[in-house]
Amino acid sequence: MRSFLIPVLWLLSTALLAQPPELIEHRVWNKAPIHIVLPVGKERRIDFPLSVQLQLPASIKDLSERIQITEGGSVFWIASKPFNPQRVNAITDTGYSYQLDIEARAKGHQHPIAIVDDRIPAQQSNTTQSPEQRYDYDYVDLLRFASQSLYAPDRLIKPLPGLRRIPIETGPLSLVKGADLLTEPMAQWVAPTIPSLYVTAVRVTSNSLNKITLDPRLLRGDFLAASSQHGFVNPVGEEGTTTAWYLISAQPFDEVAP
């Protein structure tokens, strides 16, 4: 029995060590309201750099199952029903304030959100990463990685440490204004930068009898950058009717896409 337990315990400990660290999305306070989506019936944590008090409208209290605030500056929030964005003020004991646009949807992400404030020294803040944990990936790095992940052999993909693939809800959506195109998200990654950045690969298929040039200005959604694998798609019935968009956003794709 003893010889059996040792390998089993070793396997369990190895599995625990192999688990990735908790995904925390970093948002930087820049005087603009921070949009946060709560999944109905599930808890989401919001970490502030300092302890805070919330100024809540009565309507949002009635639509929340629980709002718990800790001394360390974390808010644990469960919405009981969907609701449209509502403004919430968070005020620290030292007088800093943050405006949040809180929204609740039937489906949503649960990973914590950490708010970073450059006004607060790193040694005082609860949400600032240490220098050795910082990553400085730019848009080009992320767009190249997404493109290689779809089209290049594994041996040619340049790894980006800390980049993590996260689930994305697939299905057709209307992503390009005024173009007869079928679009569907395929994969999504989040970069551990400050602020966090998301890169999403979207399949684009022509549904037209004409050649269509892919114009990023026609994209619907709040995207920071966009690049396509090809500059156009050919008419239905020809080769080259399918390509991919690579889109960068400051929030998960389903929170910024139409």
List its traits.
alpha+beta, Immunoglobulin-like, 2 domains, 5-stranded antiparallel beta sheet, 36% strand, disordered N terminus
Describe it.
- This protein has 258 residues and is α+β, with helices and mostly antiparallel strands.
- The chain has two domains: 22-128, Immunoglobulin-like (Sandwich); 139-256, no CATH class.
- It is 15% helix and 36% strand.
- The chain is built from four helices and 16 strands.
- The strands form four sheets. A five-stranded mixed beta sheet has the order 1-9-3-6-5. A five-stranded antiparallel beta sheet has the order 10-11-12-16-14, covered by helices on one side. Strands 2-8-7-4 form a four-stranded mixed beta sheet, with no helix packed on it.
- β7 (83-92) and β8 form a beta hairpin.
Summary of the model, kept short:
The chain has helices at 2-18, 58-62, 139-151, 253-256; strands at 25-28, 34-39, 43-47, 52-55, 64-69, 74-79, 83-92, 97-105, 113-116, 164-166, 181-191, 197-206, 212-213, 225-228, 232-233, 242-249. The protein has 258 residues and is of the alpha+beta class.
